[in-house]
Amino acid sequence: MEIIYLAGVRERTLIAVKPDGVQRRLVGQIIQRFELRGFKLVGLKMLQVSEDLLSRHYSQLTGKPFYPDLVKYMTSGPVVVMVWEGYNAVQTSRAMVGLTNPADAQAGTVRGDFSIHVSRNVVHASDSPEGAQKEIQLWFQGQELLNWDCCYHNITCEL
Ligand SMILES: Nc1ccn([C@@H]2O[C@H](COP(=O)(O)OP(=O)(O)OP(=O)(O)O)[C@@H](O)[C@H]2O)c(=O)n1
Ligand SMILES: Nc1ncnc2c1ncn2[C@@H]1O[C@H](COP(=O)(O)OP(=O)(O)O)[C@@H](O)[C@H]1O
Ligand SMILES: [Mg+2]
């Protein structure tokens, strides 16, 4: 019982600011939303994504007609990738990011506030706890993730 509860509190998700978000200088605002919501940053880096990493990240999409354009977009410039931790991080982050197509994303979400086209939708967010675990392992080395005590942790979550 205790273990399941702690797993939910310490859930991690992978969020990436895509090249359009970096070019448009939205990185700070996106980080701020996750900080203010109450999540804890445990990993952060900027990188130029390789086609190999992208094909592993989007392995279910490689056969889609838009995949070649997705590769061009995602490799067009640097990406800022981060891992956020906290209670129910995956589900809450998806709600904060909004639906895939910005036309369907609610105002108040990252996509609903900052994007207009599905192929330039500013951020990535893991869509399940299992997917998040896979993506975190794909994008980060173990030592790049920090376990640190955040003094707000027991204020934002019931422990
Ligand atoms: N017709 C489409 C569908 C998707 N995409 C791009 O492909 C990404 C991955 O699609 P999908 O995984 O279905 O969307 P999300 O899970 O919402 O986005 P992400 O995985 O990037 O978080 C989208 O974010 C978008 O950048 C696109 O350019 N054109
Ligand atoms: N029909 C589409 N046309 C163009 N790009 C798409 C389309 N569907 C998805 N994408 C792109 O692929 C990304 C990954 O897709 P998916 O994982 O299904 O959605 P999400 O990004 O919301 O998790 C989307 O964010 C979007 O950038
Ligand atoms: Mg996705």
UniProtKB/TrEMBL annotation:
<comment type="function">
    <text>Major role in the synthesis of nucleoside triphosphates other than ATP.</text>
</comment>
<keyword id="KW-0479">Metal-binding</keyword>
<feature type="binding site">
    <location>
        <position position="111"/>
    </location>
    <ligand>
        <name>ATP</name>
    </ligand>
</feature>
<dbReference type="InterPro" id="IPR023005">
    <property type="entry name" value="Nucleoside_diP_kinase_AS"/>
</dbReference>
<keyword id="KW-0067">ATP-binding</keyword>
<dbReference type="GO" id="GO:0006183">
    <property type="term" value="P:GTP biosynthetic process"/>
</dbReference>
<dbReference type="InterPro" id="IPR034907">
    <property type="entry name" value="NDK-like_dom"/>
</dbReference>
<comment type="similarity">
    <text>Belongs to the NDK family.</text>
</comment>
<protein>
    <recommendedName>
        <fullName>Nucleoside diphosphate kinase</fullName>
        <ecNumber>2.7.4.6</ecNumber>
    </recommendedName>
</protein>
<keyword id="KW-0547">Nucleotide-binding</keyword>
<feature type="binding site">
    <location>
        <position position="121"/>
    </location>
    <ligand>
        <name>ATP</name>
    </ligand>
</feature>
<keyword id="KW-0808">Transferase</keyword>
<dbReference type="GO" id="GO:0006241">
    <property type="term" value="P:CTP biosynthetic process"/>
</dbReference>
<keyword id="KW-0963">Cytoplasm</keyword>
<dbReference type="GO" id="GO:0006228">
    <property type="term" value="P:UTP biosynthetic process"/>
</dbReference>
<keyword id="KW-0546">Nucleotide metabolism</keyword>
<keyword id="KW-0460">Magnesium</keyword>
<dbReference type="GO" id="GO:0005524">
    <property type="term" value="F:ATP binding"/>
</dbReference>
<feature type="binding site">
    <location>
        <position position="66"/>
    </location>
    <ligand>
        <name>ATP</name>
    </ligand>
</feature>
<keyword id="KW-0966">Cell projection</keyword>
<feature type="binding site">
    <location>
        <position position="18"/>
    </location>
    <ligand>
        <name>ATP</name>
    </ligand>
</feature>
<feature type="binding site">
    <location>
        <position position="100"/>
    </location>
    <ligand>
        <name>ATP</name>
    </ligand>
</feature>
<dbReference type="InterPro" id="IPR036850">
    <property type="entry name" value="NDK-like_dom_sf"/>
</dbReference>
<dbReference type="GO" id="GO:0004550">
    <property type="term" value="F:nucleoside diphosphate kinase activity"/>
</dbReference>
<dbReference type="GO" id="GO:0005634">
    <property type="term" value="C:nucleus"/>
</dbReference>
<dbReference type="Pfam" id="PF00334">
    <property type="entry name" value="NDK"/>
</dbReference>
<dbReference type="GO" id="GO:0005758">
    <property type="term" value="C:mitochondrial intermembrane space"/>
</dbReference>
<dbReference type="InterPro" id="IPR001564">
    <property type="entry name" value="Nucleoside_diP_kinase"/>
</dbReference>
<keyword id="KW-0418">Kinase</keyword>
<keyword id="KW-0539">Nucleus</keyword>
<feature type="active site" description="Pros-phosphohistidine intermediate">
    <location>
        <position position="124"/>
    </location>
</feature>
<keyword id="KW-0131">Cell cycle</keyword>
<dbReference type="GO" id="GO:0005759">
    <property type="term" value="C:mitochondrial matrix"/>
</dbReference>
<feature type="domain" description="Nucleoside diphosphate kinase-like">
    <location>
        <begin position="10"/>
        <end position="147"/>
    </location>
</feature>
<feature type="binding site">
    <location>
        <position position="94"/>
    </location>
    <ligand>
        <name>ATP</name>
    </ligand>
</feature>
<dbReference type="GO" id="GO:0046872">
    <property type="term" value="F:metal ion binding"/>
</dbReference>
<dbReference type="GO" id="GO:0030027">
    <property type="term" value="C:lamellipodium"/>
</dbReference>
<dbReference type="GO" id="GO:0001726">
    <property type="term" value="C:ruffle"/>
</dbReference>
